């Protein structure tokens, strides 16, 4: 099985030398997540950042185009570096985009290389999903069916959300945002709930915490004590 180098914001010796299995072996929870069956409300829309949220690299720094797929779940660039999503992301996207969840998905990223990001999203596939006999492209969960679109350009995340809200007709209060950068908490000024992810990116634990946080803001569950996992200090964007 192919190995994928993980590029860290602040790599240590062990980080640089370490590898992780390709996204085709992404982990899914053994049982159906409790938040999906507890009859409590869910966000109408989940919005996701890209760099260090869906994948462990900066799209404009670490990738040297052109890119090519060496498997449905792993890409290679001009320098032979390998890239994939964070391990839990494929299964998370598969679940969130399923009729079982009835949650719309969108992307809000400040990456200055929109075309390259779109190419990465088109080239990577989701395991155990098919469209016309082929594994579903990652981009499809954001742009087809109930997908709420891609906002990938350098601007304020507030601008991203303004465009998404106009396109979907959804209220900011019904949106949950996952991002790795503290400055992007600015979106909470309009009513969006943001969950700050750690260096592991979007994983099952972060997804559950984000949904719990959104429910607390909606008054559906008692609010947790201040601080905790939503106080991570992010890096560039």
Structure commentary:
The structure is a single chain. By secondary structure, the protein is of the alpha/beta class. Helix content is 23%, strand content 20%. The chain is built from six helices and twelve strands. It has helices spanning 13-17, 89-96, 114-123, 140-143, 157-168, 204-218; strands at 3-5, 19-21, 45-48, 68-71, 74-76, 82-83, 104-109, 125-131, 134-137, 150-152, 175-179, 193-196. It has a five-stranded parallel β-sheet, sandwiched between helices. The relative contact order is 0.17. Residues 1-25 have low confidence and may be disordered. GO terms for molecular function: acid phosphatase activity. Pfam families: Acid_PPase.
In short:
By secondary structure, the chain is of the alpha/beta class.
Helix-strand layout with pairing:
Elements: E1 3-5, H1 13-17, E2 19-21, E3 45-48, E4 68-71, E5 74-76, E6 82-83, H2 89-96, E7 104-109, H3 114-123, E8 125-131, E9 134-137, H4 140-143, E10 150-152, H5 157-168, E11 175-179, E12 193-196, H6 204-218
Parallel strand pairs: 3-7, 3-11, 7-10, 11-12
Antiparallel strand pairs: 1-2, 4-5, 5-6, 8-9
């Amino acid at each position: 099985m192919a190995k994928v180098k993980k590029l860290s914001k602040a790599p240590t010796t062990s980080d640089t030398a370490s590898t992780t299995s390709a996204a085709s072996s992404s982990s899914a929870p053994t049982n159906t997540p409790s938040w999906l069956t507890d009859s409590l409300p869910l966000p109408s829309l989940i919005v996701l950042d890209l760099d260090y949220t869906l994948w462990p690299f900066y799209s404009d720094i670490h990738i040297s185009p052109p890119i090519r797929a060496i498997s449905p779940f792993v890409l290679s660039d001009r320098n032979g570096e390998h890239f994939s999503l964070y391990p839990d992301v494929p299964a998370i996207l598969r679940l969130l985009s399923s009729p079982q969840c009835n949650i719309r998905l969108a992307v809000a990223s400040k990456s200055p290389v929109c075309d390259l990001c779109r190419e990465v999203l088109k080239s990577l596939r989701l395991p155990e999903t098919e469209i016309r006999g082929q594994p579903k492209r990652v981009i499809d969960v954001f742009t087809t069916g109930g997908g709420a679109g891609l906002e990938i350009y350098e601007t304020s995340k507030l601008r991203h959300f303004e465009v998404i809200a106009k396109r979907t007709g959804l209220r900011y209060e019904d949106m949950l945002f996952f991002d790795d950068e503290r400055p992007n908490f600015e979106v909470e000024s309009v009513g969006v709930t943001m969950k700050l992810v750690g260096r592991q990116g979007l994983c099952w634990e972060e997804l559950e915490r984000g949904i719990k946080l959104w429910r607390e803001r909606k008054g559906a569950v008692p609010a947790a004590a201040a601080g905790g996992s939503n106080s991570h200090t992010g890096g560039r964007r």
